[in-house]
Each structure stands twice: as C-alpha cells, then as structure tokens.
Write a structure and sequence with these properties.
The chain is of the alpha+beta class. It is built from 9 helices and 13 strands. β11 and β12 form a beta hairpin. The termini are far apart.
Length: 287
C-alpha cells in the first residue's frame, strides 16, 4: 500500500487536511498531499523542526502533537517516524480537529472563548509550574527552531547555562519551601535582565536554568551573565524573616559561525562544559 494512503487511512475519524513525508537527513519534503479544503502553506515551523520532531518521537516512541490555530479552526499536527526501504523518515500530518477535541466534556464548537482555554492549556504545558519560566519541554521543542531561524538570518545566538551554587545547602538548612522561594526570586532576576519578546529563560531542571539570547554576540552575552551574577550575589533572599545568601555560576556559548548549523544537543553539551569549568574555577563566576 502507498505510504501516504496508509497514513490517510490511519487518521480515521479526523478530516486530514495535508500530509507529507520528510527526509530528516536532508530536511527535504519527499512527497506531499493535501485535501481541497486545505488552504495556505504547510506550516513552515514543522519543516524547520523536522529533526527535533524526529528525535522526540523516537525517544518517546510515540507521535509528537502540536496545535495550530487558523481562524476559528483547530488544526492538529502529528509527526511520527517510520521506516521506508531501511531508512528512517518522518510523516507530518495536519488534521482538522475542530469538533473532535473535548475539554472537560465541552465540545469546541459549543462554547465561546474555548480557543483561549486551549491556548492556556498549551501555555501551561511549556511553563514551569514553580517559577513561571518556560520548562524543559519548551527548550526541547523551541531551541532547534530558534537555532534554525538565526542560521537563516545569519544572526549570532547565545545560550547561557546558570546553576545556583550549593543550592542543596539552602534546602538542608532552611527547608524546601525556602528553596522554592529562592528559585522563584532567581527566576525574576533572570527575566529582569533580558529583553522581553526577543530573549527567553527556562528552568532546565532543579537549580539549573537556561537563557536564550537572540542576535547577541559572546562579549555582550557574557556581560549579561556577569550582570545577573552580580545581582544574585548582592541580593538577599528572605524566608520567615531569615536572610539567605547564594551565588550562581554561568556558562556562556555563542554561535556566530554560519558555515555549519549545530544541533540543539551539541549547543547544550558545549555550554554545559563551560558551566562545569565555571564550577571548577571556584563558582560564582562566568565562563
């Protein structure tokens, strides 16, 4: 059976708007089919994130889902890997999910403003519940596309890895509630030192945080990290009237060589090594 026809058959109850087969190695569309009802271009975002969708699908062993809003319609992108002649390919299918998605038992077509609730649900899925920053899922899904966009525009990009020094001591001495408070206030210090709408910060996990700086060279990015380092060092955190002091170490990496496009994994690995060097140098420093 034709691969595209097979994918269409499996979509069952949904109205398939478009489907394409992408070669992850070349990021090239091998085949594409769309219904008469599908208007506009296939979402560009999916093509730029092909390799990321592939890695996520393979690691989770299940399709990756992504909502797309077009007017009053809810489109759902499903990306899933499959084998074709011994080669791993990626199928990307757009389906019209309007009228098929239910939230708390309420049909999308039956309540005004439900689209906003869906957007809220999506936002919550990529937001760290404690700090309000983006979470690891956001990093995994958006860092590859940010890299691709900077490479396309030939703009430098910088990634900062931050780690609170001896954070475990805060939990041990003051308690986990105090530790949570420190993380929240630290998140505020991060967002207060980056450009809203251009840069973003995310909680990578535990006491580790990532900052993405768009169109920023190494020297300027290092200055930003140094500014945050000083702000943290001079800041006094309080919990139940008790003062808490803490410092932070930073690794900074800039990509401004456009001859090759590094993957998100390669960038994260490189900046993590810089953070490790900052720790080895005595902490409370920027490398």
């Amino acid at each position: 059976m034709d691969v595209l026809a097979s994918v269409l058959d499996q979509m069952g109850r949904f109205l398939v708007c478009a489907v394409r087969i992408v070669d992850p190695e070349t990021n090239r569309v091998v085949r594409e089919r769309r219904s008469d009802s599908f208007w506009g271009r296939f979402p560009d975002l999916t093509l730029s994130q092909t390799k990321n969708y592939l890695s996520l699908s393979l690691s989770k062993r299940q399709p990756v889902f992504h909502f797309i809003h077009k007017g009053n319609r809810i489109l759902l992108l499903l990306a899933a890997p499959f084998q074709l002649s011994g080669k791993t390919m990626l199928s990307e299918t757009v389906v019209d999910a309007t009228g098929h998605i239910f939230l708390n038992g309420v049909d999308l077509n039956g309540e005004k403003g439900l689209l906003n609730r869906i957007r809220l649900t999506q936002a919550q899925a990529v937001t760290d519940e404690l700090t309000g920053l983006y979470n690891r899922r956001y990093i995994d899904e958006h860092l590859p596309s940010e890299i691709h966009a900077c490479m396309e525009k030939r703009h430098p990009l910088s990634v900062i890895f931050a780690d609170l020094d001896f954070y475990k001591n805060v939990n041990d001495v003051f308690g986990h509630t105090a530790g949570d408070r420190v993380l929240c206030e630290f998140a505020e210090l991060l967002t207060g030192n980056i450009r809203k709408g251009k840069d973003w910060a995310a909680r990578y996990g535990g006491e580790e945080f990532l900052i993405f700086l768009n169109n920023r060279g190494y020297q300027r990015s290092k200055e930003i990290a140094e500014r945050i380092r000083i702000a943290v060092m001079n800041h006094t955190f309080y919990h139940d009237g008790r003062a808490i002091k803490i410092t932070c170490s930073f690794g900074v990496l800039t990509v401004d060589d456009f001859s090759e496009s590094p993957t998100a994994e390669e960038i994260l690995d490189a900046v993590d090594k810089r953070l490790y060097r900052a720790k080895k140098l005595g902490r409370n420093t920027v490398v």
